[in-house]
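Record type: monomer structure entry
Structure origin: computed from sequence
Chain ID: A
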Amino acid sequence: MTPPETIVVFPGQGSQRSGMGRDFHGNFAAARRVYEEGSEALGLDLPALCIDNDPRPGLTEFAQPGVDVAGDNSAEQIVLSGLAA
């Protein structure tokens, strides 16, 4: 019997909120690395945007990178947990 496939769906714009990355950033070194890499690539302080009580996630130009880095962190934790894709 073939094992069932694993499908992971990440939310898009409209799901963003202030503090959306706080748990990952606070609990996982890999998440902090993802935030650092994203911040460097975009020239944007992603931890401030996603972790602090920042009102900017409501604006498209900030929501997109915020939701993306939150999804990247989720994917990173899934891989590190050993869940096979």
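Annotation 1: Residues 60-81 form the longest helix (22 residues).
Annotation 2: The mean pLDDT is 82.
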